[in-house]
Amino acid sequence: MLGSRGLGTVHGLLVGSVSHQVLRRAACPVVLVRAVTDGAVAEGAVTEGASAPRGREVVVGVDLKHSCDALLAFAFEAAALRAAALRIVHGWEPPIGSEYMASPAVDGSAGDLSAADRDAMDTLLAAWRERYPTVEATTVLVHAPPPAALVEASAGAALVIVGRPARHWPLGTHLGPTAHAAVHHIGCPVAVVPHD
């Protein structure tokens, strides 16, 4: 678990340099808990001796093009421990020039997602739902950029879980756009889970 106390002057950039480096480099999941300057407890935080918030939602962002096992394992376990519902969010942007560009979904839902995407999500979750039968897991397939979809879905959540590529790039590890948006713009605790 890692505290957050960004001291920058840019509104919304809530993560300090030490927290940012740990989130980028840690080989294990890291939970970022917001600091509150007036002595109040950050939204969704657990104080010493208290149990985790119960009944509030756990939200996880997934990308159907990449392995999600590490994320889903963490998410289902977190939801089970909190006796909370789990919402699995997949943000989707159509390829430039595709027929989907001309007719976006009216309600921002899965209306224009391919049947293959919906089937992939159902297949991905089947084993996890069987393993965690007490967790009420729902999916949200949104026609929106993944970072924006996850930030919007986080309202009222007790915990948001996002992945970070574990592989190294020429200039070192990085958070990726969705994890970056989550740690800078989501107020509740955010778990960053490295994955392949």
Low-confidence stretches: 5-14, 37-55, 101-112
Task: Give the N-to-C terminal Cα separation.
Answer: 22 Å
Q: What is the name of the CATH topology?
A: Rossmann fold
Question: Biggest sheet, strands in spatial order?
Answer: 1-2-7-6-3-4-5
Looking at the overall shape, the CATH architecture is 3-Layer(aba) Sandwich
Range of helix content: 25-40%
The structure class reads alpha/beta
Beta content comes to 15-25%
Largest sheet: 7 strands, mixed
Distinct helical segment count: 5
**The CATH C-level class name:** Alpha Beta
| C-alpha-based Rg, rounded | 17 Å
Shape: globular
SSE sequence, one letter per element: EHEEHEHEHEHE
| Count of distinct strands | 7
Integer tally of domains: 1
Task: State the assembly state of the protein chains.
Answer: single chain
Mean pLDDT, rounded to whole units? 74
Protein name: UspA domain-containing protein
InterPro entries: Rossmann-like_a/b/a_fold, UspA
Family: Belongs to the universal stress protein A family.
Pfam families: Usp
Task: Output the keywords.
196 residues; alpha/beta; Rossmann fold; seven-stranded mixed β-sheet; 5 helices; 29% helix
What layout of secondary structure does this protein have?
Layout: E1 2-4, H1 17-25, E2 30-34, E3 58-61, H2 69-82, E4 86-92, H3 115-131, E5 137-143, H4 146-153, E6 159-165, H5 177-185, E7 190-195
Parallel strand pairs: 1-2, 3-4, 3-6, 4-5, 6-7
Antiparallel strand pairs: 2-7
Helix pairs in contact: 4-5
Family: Belongs to the universal stress protein A family.
Pfam family, one: Usp
Domain UspA: 2-34, 57-194
Structural description of this entry:
By secondary structure, this protein is of the alpha/beta class. It has a single domain (13-195), classed as Rossmann fold (3-Layer(aba) Sandwich). Helices cover 29% and strands 20% of the residues. It has helices at 17-25, 69-82, 115-131, 146-153, 177-185; strands spanning 2-4, 30-34, 58-61, 86-92, 137-143, 159-165, 190-195. Strands 1-2-7-6-3-4-5 form a seven-stranded mixed beta sheet, sandwiched between helices. The longest helix is centred in the middle third of the chain and has 17 residues, at 115-131. The protein is globular. Mean pLDDT is 74; it is low at 5-14, 37-55 and 101-112.
